[in-house]
Amino acid sequence: MYEIIAFYVFAALTIGMFGIVVTSRNALYAMSALAGGMIFISGFFFILDAEFLGVVQIVVYSGAIMALYAFGMMFFDTTRDVSEKMRSKKIAYSLSIASAVLVVAILCAPLVGESVEALYPSIEGVGNVQMIGVVLFTKYLVPFELAAIMLLVAMISGIVLASKKMDEYLAIEDEDLEDVKEGR
Q1: Which of 48, 122, 181, 183 lies 20 to 30 Å from 11, alpha-carbon distance?
Q2: Is the Cβ–Cβ distance between 41 and 14 less than 8 Å?
Q3: CA-CA distance, 5 to 16, in Å (whole number)?
């Protein structure tokens, strides 16, 4: 029963966060909502007793979104002051209290509720992390290797593009330096 309620709460919060990502005009607000949405997605893994995947979801996407924050602050004008217009403080406070109560209820639900059976049957003596390894390196070996190759190609491409841009930037900087030396 508690798992169903937690599922619907996480589903509504995830959809809400990604809705903010799509509709927000401020890049930093969109990235914050993206981080929240990814954390709420990890809640689904915790509901399914896949704690390892839930933690990996949080750690990996938190790191990726921190990099996205850095790029967002470099490319967008985030130095200007953001003025908040809070129309009703009572609504904000009541939503904050309600969300805190929901988080506490969701975290306490496994203590009272029944366990949800995972998609794959458990093998005696094999834990959650070992089962992920078994499935990943048997059934999903080819997609796993293709994803690794694609990430490697993307990393090499990013390095090549960055080095080309750096060469152009250094060439422009050398021309400006020559102009300064000659007094132009």
Answers
A1: 122
A2: yes
A3: 16
Return the pLDDT at 114. 58
Which positions ≥6 away from 20 have C-beta within 8 Å?
29, 30, 33
Q: CB-hemisphere CA count at 13 Å for 111?
A: 5
Q: Are the C-beta atoms of 57 and 38 separated by less than 8 Å?
A: yes
Q: How far is CA 81 from the centre of its chain?
A: 25
Q: What is the C-alpha to C-alpha distance for residues 113 and 42, in angstroms, rounded to an integer?
A: 19
Which residue has 């000659």 as its token pair? Answer: 182
Predicted pLDDT of residue 119: 47
